[in-house]
Amino acid sequence: MDNTTTLAAQDRPPTANVPVLKRFLQMRETGLVLIILALFIIMSFASPYFLTWANMRAMSMAFAVDGLLVIGMTILLISGGIDLSVGSVTALAMVVAGWLFLGGVNPWIASAMAIAMCTGIGAFMGFFVTRVGLHHFIVSLAVMVIARGACLLFTGGRPLGLYTLPPEFKFIGQGSIGPFPVVIIIFLVFVIAFDFMLRRTTMFRKVFYTGSNEKAAAYSGIRTKKVIFLTTTLCSALCGIAGIIYMARFGSAQPTFGLGLELTIIAAAVIGGASLNGGSGSILGAILGVILLSLVSSSLALLDVSVYWQDIIRGTILLAAVTIDHYLNKRRR
Amino acid sequence: MDNTTTLAAQDRPPTANVPVLKRFLQMRETGLVLIILALFIIMSFASPYFLTWANMRAMSMAFAVDGLLVIGMTILLISGGIDLSVGSVTALAMVVAGWLFLGGVNPWIASAMAIAMCTGIGAFMGFFVTRVGLHHFIVSLAVMVIARGACLLFTGGRPLGLYTLPPEFKFIGQGSIGPFPVVIIIFLVFVIAFDFMLRRTTMFRKVFYTGSNEKAAAYSGIRTKKVIFLTTTLCSALCGIAGIIYMARFGSAQPTFGLGLELTIIAAAVIGGASLNGGSGSILGAILGVILLSLVSSSLALLDVSVYWQDIIRGTILLAAVTIDHYLNKRRR
Amino acid sequence: EGIMCEPGETYVMNVMVSGHPYWVPVYQGFKQAAEAFGCETVFSGTPDYDITKQIASFEQDMIKTPAGILLHPMQSDPFIEPINRAIANGTEIVTFAADSPNSNRSGYITSDNRAEAKFAAEEIVAQVGDSAEYAVLENPGQSNHDLRVTALIEYMEANYPDMKLVGRQATNQDSNAAYKATASIIQANPNLAAMWIPEAGSAEGAVAAKLEAGSDVLIMHADVTPTTLEHIKAGNIHMSLNPNQGVQGFMGFMAVHLANRSEIFDPFNDWKTSGFNPVQIPFMDNGFAVITKENADSFDLNVYMEGRDPA
Amino acid sequence: MQNIVLEISDLSKSFGPVKALRGINFELRKGEIHAVAGENGAGKSTLMNVIDGILQPDSGEIRLDGKPVTITSPTMAQRLGIGFVHQEIALCPDVSVAENIFMATTNTSRAWFMDYRKLEHDARAAFRQLSDIDPSTLVRDLSISHQQLVEIAKALTLDCRILILDEPTAALTENEAQTLFRIMRDLADRGISIIYISHRMVEIFDNCDRVSVFRDGQHITTRNVAEIEPSDVVNAMVGRVIDNLYPAKQTTPSEETLLEVRDLSEARRFRNVSFTLKKGEILGIAGLIGAGRSELAKGVCRLEGDVTGEVWLKGKRLNLRSYQDSIAHGMVYLSEDRKGDGVFLDLSIAANVSALKVEQVAGRLGLISTVAEHRQSDALGRKLNLKCGALTDPVMSLSGGNQQKVAIAKMLSVNPELIFLDEPTRGVDVGAKSEIHQILRDLAEAGVGIVVISSELPELIGVCDRVLVMREGRISGEVTGDEITEENIMRLASVLDASATLA
Ligand SMILES: Nc1ncnc2c1ncn2[C@@H]1O[C@H](COP(=O)(O)OP(=O)(O)OP(=O)(O)O)[C@@H](O)[C@H]1O
Ligand SMILES: Nc1ncnc2c1ncn2[C@@H]1O[C@H](COP(=O)(O)OP(=O)(O)OP(=O)(O)O)[C@@H](O)[C@H]1O
Ligand SMILES: [Mg+2]
Ligand SMILES: [Mg+2]
C-alpha cells in the first residue's frame, strides 16, 4: 500500500482506545522497563538475597530521595534548562537547617527556612537566566560553587551532628508507616503527583511548549520566561526538600554531601527520555532512570564485585542501556 | 542616515582596513580581556608578589596543560558536542603510559600508545554519537565512569611513582628553554596553531557549519557525521597529550587526577564565548576563560583568603564575569 | 637569634581540600606551637582536590619566602622538584599526613596507618571472635585511607585466616554511597559480624544502613565527625580510631622550626661537608586516640573550636 | 471614522544602525482585508511584530479603537484580540498538531487539566476546511507546507478582532490558498479585520479590499484595490515599472539530454518516476502539497530516503550514494525549508554563501581568504539585489525574503551543472523575483540544468518550458508550451479523489 497517501485515508484511533498491551508497547518508557526487568531476573538468579523484602526496601531507600531531585531536574530539562547545582544546594539545605537547629531554632521552622532559602537560590538562578540572559549551565555552575562555599562557611567544613533532632522529626527520614518507610511514601507521593500533573495539567503543558520551541510558545502568549523561572525555582525547591529528608535520615548535615550528584541526576533524567534540548521527558521515565542506576550499583555491591571493576561495569551498563533503549524506541516508531 | 542600503549602493570598506583599535573593540573576546586586565590591575595593588616573574610562571603553569583540554572542548562544543570524560581520560593517559613504562616499555613509545588509546576512546564515543545516535552528554558520561574505573584497575587505586622516567622525557614537563618552561611553549604552540586553523582553514570552517545547523550543513554537502566524529576524537586525543605532559611534569601517574575537571573546562570554553548549542566559539576566548578561572584561584591563594570564603568568591566572580561579558557584548552589537 | 622568631617570621601550613575539617585541629596545634615561639602562621593551599592547583599555591607560598612550610603533598612525586626548589630558596619543608620521600624535605610526621589497622583488627577479633565474617568500605586513590584498609586485610589474612572478608566496596567518603553499599552488603551477608571503615563520612552512611536493617554488625572506623561521635555514645558504632591531629600540627611545627634553626645544633655527623640540614627527622608518629562511649565527649571538634580562630 | 480599529502613526524602529521603520502611518478598518506589499526588507514583518508586541517601537503611537495602547508582549496582543500568522513557521516540534493549534487557548484557559480528546476533536474540526492532517501527529513529522497549514489553522482558531497573515501562502498551492481566502472572506464578513502580506499580486488583487505599499521602512501609499492596477503597486514598491515579469522562453528546444531519471523509487514517498531534462530547458514540477515533489528532488540528489533507480547526467550513469557524490557531479538542491535546512541563521552572510564549497574562497593550504569570501557574497548579493547591513552580519538579522536570496546565492556560488530549486522564490519580492527568473533563464541558456518546484502556478507557467505534474508520489502527466495552463496543471494534479477531499 502507498503510505504517502493523504492522511485522511489513515484511520488512526485516538490513543485512549488502544488496548492496554499495545499502549504499553508504544510508551516511551517501555524499553527501560524491559531493561530493568531483565536486570531483575538476572539478579534473582545471581543472588538469593536479591528478591527479599529487606533488600527491596534497602534498594528503594537508596534512590527514594534522589528521586525528588530527578523530578525537579526532569521538569527543568523539559523546559530547556539544566541545573548543575543540585548536589550542593541539597547539601546547603541540610547545612542551613542543621545550623539553625543547633542555634536553637525549632527543627520544623529551620527546615522551612532552609527550603525557602533553596527556593530563593532557584529564583536567583532563574533571574540570571531569564532576565540577564545567561545560560543555565554557567549560572548553575557558579551557584554550585557558591553553595558549596556557603556550606563550608556555615560549618567550618565540619559535619554538623544533629543527633538531638526530636524523634518526630527524624521520623520523616527514618520512620515507617506499617511496613513502608516514610521516605518511600514521600517519594511515591511526589512521583505520582508530578507525573500526573506533568501529563495532565495545562500548567505543566506550558513547560513542554516552552522547551520545545520557546519562540513559538511566546508567540502563543505563553510567558516563557516565567515558565523557565518557575521550573528553575522548582528544581531548587525540591533540592531543599530532599536536603531536609536526608538530614532527618542521617541525623547529620554534611557540607560535602552530594559532590558529583548532579551528573547522576541528569543521567537518570536523560536515560528516562528527557531531552537535553528541551521539549520532552517524563517523570515516570526519569524515575525508571534513577531506579536503573541505583539497581546497578546495588547489584554490584550485592554480588561483591571487585571495586576495581565496578566503575567499568557500571559505565558499560549505562552505555548499553541507553543504546538498547534507543534501538527499542527507534523500532517502535 | 540609512544603513540598510542594498549592496549595489553600498561602499563599505573590507574588514582589513578598519583601524586596529576599532577591530579590537568589535571582537567577541574584548570583554574578557578587559575583565582579566581589571583583575590584573587590582591584584598588582593587592599583593606585592603578584607581578613577579615567579608568580606569573607559577600561574601560567597552573593553566597551561588544561589549556590543551579547553582547545579540544571548544572545538567539540562548536561542532555541537560536549565531553564530560576529559578529566578521567586525561588521568587514564597518565596511568596507562606510566603502567607501560613501569612494565619496561620505552617512555616515548608508552606515551604514543597512551595517546593512541585516548584517540581510540574518542573514536569510540564518536561512533556512539554518530552511528548509534546517542547524545554526547550521556555517551561521554558513561566513558567518564569507565575510564575512571580503568584507572583504578591499572593502578589498584594507588598513584604510580615514575621517578625513574629519563630526564629527556621529564624535560617536556619540567624543563625550560631559556626562561620559558617547555610546558608553556607547548601550550602557546597549540593555542596559536589551533586558533589560526579554526579561524582560517576550510576544514575547521565545516565544524562551525555543522554546529550551527547540522541539517543545513548536510544540505550543503558537508559530511556532518564525519565532522562530529573527528571533533569528538580530537578532544580525546588532546586529553591524551595533556595526560602525557602532566605525567612528565609530575613524574607520577595519579588514578584520581582530574576529578571534576570537565566542568572547569566546559566553563572556561563557555566563558570564552563557546555556545552550548554549537556553532560558535573561539580558541582565544576559551583560553582567556581558562586564564580568568585560573587567575581567580591563584589570586585567592596569593592573598591567603580564608578557605571558607574562597568558593563563594570564586563562584561570585565567575557569575559576575559572565554577566559583565554578556552586557559588554550586547552593547557592542 | 636564638630559638625565638624574629618579627614577621612566618610559617605556612599548605594542604589540599583546605575546607576539610581534618586540618582544623592540625592547624590549631601548629599555631599553638608557633605562638610559643613568637612566630606567625598562615593556613594556605587549595580548596580543590587538584594537584595542579596545590602546586601553584605552594609555589605562590614560596614566592613570599616564608621560614618554613608544613606541607601535606597531595602526591609525593610531583612535589619533589618544588620542595627542593623551596629548600634551595631558604624555606624549610616538613611533610605531614602524606609524604614526598624522594624530596629533600627535612621531616615527615604522620599517624601510623598500619598501627591503626592492626589495632582495629585485634579489636574486631576480640569482639566477634577469630572466625567471623567482616567487610570493609574503602576509598581507593587516597593513600592513607587505602593503607588503613589494605593493612587490615593483610593483617587478618596473616594472623586470623578464619576471618572471612565478605564485602569490599568503594564509597569515597560519600555517606549516601556508603549507605547504599552497606545496605547491600548487609542484605547479601546475613552473618556479617563486623565492618572496618577508613574514614568517618562513609561511617555515617553505614551506620544509618545498619540501623535501618536492624542489624547488630560491629562498626569500627577511623577519624570522627559529630554524628559518628553520637553514634559511638549511643553504642551504634563500636569505636573509632582518631589520629592525634593536634600533635601532628604541633610536632610538625617543631620539626620545621627546628630545621630552620639548625644552626643552634652542632651534631655528630657529616652535615658541614654534605651541606645537608642537620635536623633531619625522617619519620615521626603522632599516634592515635581510641574513641569509645566513655571518652567520646572529649572529641567534639565544635566544642573544641569554640572561641578559637580557625584560620 | 468610527470604523477604524487600528491606527498607527509615525512609528519608527531601528536595529542598531539599521532603520527598519521610519515614521510609518497605517490604518486598518473594521472588516476589511488590507494587503501590505513591499520589497524584501521594506519593514512589513517588523511592523507586524510591533503590532503583536514582539518588538517595541522606538517611537510612534499605536491606537486600538481610538485608544492609545502599548503592546508589550504577544500575551497582551492576544488579550487585545490580535492574532498573527508568522512569516517564519514557529511551532513546537515535540508536541502534537492539535496541541500546537490550541496552544494559545490552553494558555489562557482556566481549566486545570488538559482534555486531549477535545483538543483533537476541535483540531479536526478546524482543519476540516483546510486540510486533512491527523491532529495527533507530532509537528516534527510534518512537511514544511503542512506546518504552514498548521500555523494558519492556529491563527484561525483564535478569537480575534485583528488577524495578521504574513505571507501565509508562500508554501501553499492554489487549492489551499483558495480555501484560505474563502475563510478570510468569511471572517471579514463577520467584522474581523485582516492584514494580509504577500508578494503575489494576483492574490492581492483577487482577495483584498485595500493595499498599502511600503518601501525602505516608509509608508508610500494606501489605495483601494478596485481603483488600481497591479503594475501601479509594483511601481510604488520598487520605484520603477517592471514590464517583463517573466523572461522570454526557450526558442529552439535542444535535443541534447542533460539529465535522465529512470524508474526512481523510494519506499514511502514516490515510485517509478522517470523523466528527462534537455539542455537549455527549464523544467517545472507541479503538484499538490504532499505530492512528493520535494522528496523526488531530494531522492535524485540522494539527500534523503532509500532510493532505487538510475540517474544519468550528460549521458553518463551516475553511481550516487550520498549527497556529496551528487555535489561532486554538479547536482545541487535548494531546500524549501530555509530556516530548517537552508541557511545558518547565526553565521554571517558571507559564510552562508560560501558554505556549499568553502574551498572556492580558500587559497593554497586550504586557508580561507576573508577577502575572497566577501568578494564572492558581494558579487552574488548584488546580482540578487540583496538588502543587508554588512556581510558579516548574521543571516538572522535579514528579512525573510533576503534570507531566501542568501540561500539562492549559496546555490549559485558553485557553478553547478544542475540545480533543483524547491520553492526558489518563496517570500521573494516581485522585483527580485523577476531578477531570479532572469538568472535562471541565463543559466539554462548557458547549459545549466534547471528544475523548478513551485507551488505558485503563475511562476511555473511564466518560467518553465515544460512542467511535470506529480500526484501521490507518481508523475501524473506533463505539459509543454501553450498547454502550460492553470487548468491543465490542476487537472493533472488533483483529479477525482484528491479534489473530493478538498471540496
Ligand atoms: N533582528 C534584526 N536585527 C537586525 N536587523 C533586522 C532584524 N530584523 C529585521 N531587520 C532588518 O529590518 C529590515 C526590515 O525587515 P522586515 O523583516 O520587516 O522586512 P519585510 O518587509 O518583512 O521583508 P520580506 O518581504 O523579505 O519578509 C531589514 O533590513 C532587515 O534586515
Ligand atoms: N519525515 C517524514 N516522515 C514521514 N513522512 C514524510 C516526511 N516528510 C515528508 N513526508 C510525507 O511525504 C509526502 C511527500 O512530501 P513532500 O514534502 O515531498 O511533498 P511536496 O510535493 O514537496 O509538497 P510540499 O513540499 O508542498 O509539502 C507527504 O505526504 C509528507 O507528509
Ligand atoms: Mg517579512
Ligand atoms: Mg515540497
Summarize the structure.
The complex is a heterotetramer, with 2 copies of chain A (333 residues), 1 copy of chain C (311 residues) and 1 copy of chain D (503 residues). With 311 residues, chain C is α/β, with parallel strands linked by helices.
What ligand molecules are bound, each kind once?
adenosine-5'-triphosphate, magnesium ion
**H/I helix tally of chain A:** 14
Task: Estimate what percentage of residues of chain A fall within beta strands.
Answer: under 5%
| Cα-based radius of gyration of chain A, to the nearest Å | 21 Å
In the CATH scheme, the class of chain A would be: Mainly Alpha
Pfam families (chain D): ABC_tran
Catalytic activity (chain D): ATP + H2O + (2R,4S)-2-methyl-2,3,3,4-tetrahydroxytetrahydrofuran-[AI-2-binding protein]Side 1 = ADP + phosphate + (2R,4S)-2-methyl-2,3,3,4-tetrahydroxytetrahydrofuranSide 2 + [AI-2-binding protein]Side 1
Keywords (chain D): ATP-binding, Cell membrane, Membrane, Nucleotide-binding, Repeat, Sugar transport, Translocase, Transport
Family (chain D): Belongs to the ABC transporter superfamily. AI-2 autoinducer porter (TC 3.A.1.2.8) family.
Question: How would you explain this protein's 3D organization?
Answer:
The complex is a heterotetramer, with two copies of chain A (333 residues), one copy of chain C (311 residues) and one copy of chain D (503 residues). Chain A is an all-alpha fold and 333 residues long. Chain A contains 14 helices and four strands. In chain A, the strands form two sheets. In chain A, strands 1-4 form a two-stranded antiparallel ribbon. Chain A has a two-stranded antiparallel ribbon with strand order 2-3. In chain A, a hairpin with a 2-residue loop joins strand 2 and strand 3. Residues 1-16 of chain A have low confidence and may be disordered. Chain C is α/β, with parallel strands linked by helices and 311 residues long. Chain C contains eleven helices and twelve strands. In chain C, helix 3 (80-88) links the parallel strand 3 (68-71) and strand 4 (92-96). Chain D has three domains: 4-238, P-loop containing nucleotide triphosphate hydrolases (Rossmann fold, 3-Layer(aba) Sandwich), CATH 3.40.50; 244-330 and 416-502, Rossmann fold; 343-415, no CATH class. Residues 496-503 of chain D have low confidence and may be disordered. Chains in contact: A-B, A-C, A-D, B-C, B-D. Chains A and B meet through helix 6, helix 12 and helix 14 of A and helix 6, helix 12 and helix 14 of B. Bound molecules: adenosine-5'-triphosphate (ATP) (2 copies) and magnesium ion (2 copies). One adenosine-5'-triphosphate (ATP) binds next to strand 2, helix 1 and helix 15 of chain D. The site of one magnesium ion has 4 residues of chain D, from helix 10. Chain D: One of its GO terms (molecular function) is ATP binding.
